Amino acid sequence: MFRRAFALLVFVWLPGALRLARAEEIAPPLGVEWGEQKEHIERRLQSAKAKVVERRVVNGRDAWTVEGLAQANLRRTLFYFRGGGLVEVEFQYQNDKWAEASYNELLGDLRQRIEKHFGDGKLIARSKTPGAEVTQTLVGYEWNKNNAAIQLIYFAAESAANAYRTLSLHYKTIQ
C-alpha cells in the first residue's frame, strides 16, 4: 500500500519538476511556470476542484494554503508569490497511521528518484534533539539547478503519548 502511494506521488507530482531536467532546470510542479501570476494559478486550481483555504503574508511573500488536490497522503499544498508571481510550491505529506519507518522509507525513495535526475543532493539538515518531554528530528536535502531548487524535508516531534510527523517537498526559485 505504501509503495503504491509513493508511486503515485512520484508519477503525479515529480514529472513537473523533471520535464526540463535535460536542460538542467528545475521547473515547478503541476504544469505551472516560475513567475506565473496568482490569478492564472487560481483559475488552474479552480479547474482542478482545489480550494484556497487561507491567504496570508509569510516573510514578505503572499502565501496560499490549498486543499483538495487529489494525491495520496497530501495534507496540503502551499503556493508562495512575490510581486504577484510564483516563487515556491510546497507539498506537505502526512498520514496519521504511518510510523516513523514509513516516513523514512518515503524520504529515501523520493531522494533516490530526485537524485537520478539532478545528481546528489546536499544534506542541509540532520539533527535529533531530545528534550525533557519532546524529541525533535529534522532531516533535509537540497538540489540546486539554474536559480531553482528542490528541498526535501522530514520533521518529527515526538513525546511518550503523541507524535507529529510531516514530509515536505519544496520547489522554489532562488532569489
Structure in words:
- The protein has 175 residues and is an alpha+beta fold.
- The protein has a single domain, classed as Protein Transport Mog1p, Chain A.
- Helices cover 26% and strands 42% of the residues.
- It is built from four helices and eight strands.
- The chain has helices at 2-12, 14-18, 38-47, 100-118; strands at 51-58, 61-67, 74-82, 85-93, 122-129, 135-145, 148-158, 163-173.
- An eight-stranded antiparallel β-sheet has the order 1-2-3-4-8-7-6-5, with helices on one face.
- β5 (122-129) and β6 form a beta hairpin.
- It is globular, with a radius of gyration of 16 Å.
- The model is unreliable at 1-12 and 16-23 (pLDDT under 50).
Describe the structure concisely.
The chain has 175 residues and is α+β, with helices and mostly antiparallel strands. It has helices at 2-12, 14-18, 38-47, 100-118; strands at 51-58, 61-67, 74-82, 85-93, 122-129, 135-145, 148-158, 163-173. It has a single domain (2-173), classed as Protein Transport Mog1p, Chain A, CATH 3.40.1000.
SSE arrangement:
Layout: H1 2-12, H2 14-18, H3 38-47, E1 51-58, E2 61-67, E3 74-82, E4 85-93, H4 100-118, E5 122-129, E6 135-145, E7 148-158, E8 163-173
Antiparallel strand pairs: 1-2, 2-3, 3-4, 4-8, 5-6, 6-7, 7-8
